[in-house]
Amino acid sequence: MSSQTAPDANRWKALAFIAIAQLMVVLDATIVNIALPSAQTDLGISDGNRQWVVTAYALAFGGLLLFGGRIADLWGRKRAFVTGLGGFAAASALGGAATNEAMMFGARALQGAFGALLAPAALSLLAVMFTDAKERAKAFGIYGAIAGGGGAVGLILGGFLTEYLDWRWTFFVNIPFAIVAAAGAYFVIREPEGGRNRSSLDIPGVILSTLGLVSLVYGFTRAESEGWSDSLTIGMFAASGVLLLAFVIVEAKVKAPLLPLRVITERNRGGVYLSLGLAIIAMFGLFLFLTYYLQVVKGYTPVKTGFAFLPMIAGMITGSTQIGTRLMTRVPPRLLMGPGFLVAALGMLFLTRLEIGSSYAAVLLPGMLLLGLGMGSAFMPAMSLATYGIEPRDAGVASAMVNTSQQVGGAIGTALLNTIAASATTSYITDHMGGAASKSQQQLVQLEGMVHGYTSAIWFAVGILVAAAAIALTLINAGKPDMGGTVTGSGERDGEDVPIPVVAH
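Structure tokens predicted for MFS transporter:
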């Protein structure tokens, strides 16, 4: 086992600033959704174009993540982190000051691009600064809670800002976050020596991965609005398949690949990326359905809707910082991730019972609490294992893969589950509208159809979470981290467990 240098004395202060930056990026994914109707009216954005406020961000963020991770390895994570924060703040100011739709879409794409630099740098800084197993468990517990719960916090904050101030504040609020995090990082973070990857940049890999991921994310986004049989949707998926296949072939052959295949072919990391991506598919779709259910069916205000998500946040924080952190050094990661995803599936199962008159306390509260607990318990070891034992030169790109699986999972989840819900709603209304004579009966059938669509899609989400649990339990075979800094049982060689050493930094 390699000797380790003394841990950085400022690592816990650094964690605070990294957590602020991570919260800002995660908040931004949901905070704008609540502000979107007001922004659309103010800027005169058409119904056909309004999705670009969300899509422009998702395409830039998802498409550039691997490039951002590699830049962090090349430049140094601290520099990439501070640059990403500065750029994100400037793009947020531009979005808040937008006077037309082009300015808004441009600002969102810029936010996504700088987010793609910032997010992998943040996670890889944690990976190289916290090497002791117990400390790493605590640090990733906090990070996992923010990564999971930040989206729901965005719904509350977005509701408050939109309802009591102005939609523009959903952008301006990022600026103080970014300034505090950048100033703190500049003075506090001291990156371990020898962790940079100074190989030349793999330009073909950058182009192929960016175009491939953009095509994939746009294909799912377009499927949501135009349908799966739309010719451009099919073309995007075909192009994505060809580009990503070409990317894998190039990465296997070039001397200094953008994404070294060793990062994803190691079975534990591969298992984390796959199971985490699936779990995010289930969760992102649910955020959307519950927001609409609470606001349209139940008539909640934006602020009340945000507060209704609090049990999920509480569950995630508890699962991540209490269950995950306490058990991570005692049990193998798969025994936290597998059962965690199953508990989340049980929470989803509660939510399949949704009806127009469902009680919040009887159905939504236990469902969201279980979902949060399960996801929090699973997220935390997943985030840690995805970068555990990685060579320092690959830390940025391994972190980027975590973010990529989440971002692509989010895009797939929103489109796939939305499509399932929409078709179930349409068929329900078609079957039942004939018996509705009065206008009030017709409105009732439409609301029932909407809720039927949501529950149909939630059943799919239950299945997806069970699949994520199965992948985590079968693919991930790392043992528990011991106090000396190794993970035992990572693989087999002649029938023996092979330890993963923690690389000295």
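The two ends are 13 Å apart (CA to CA).
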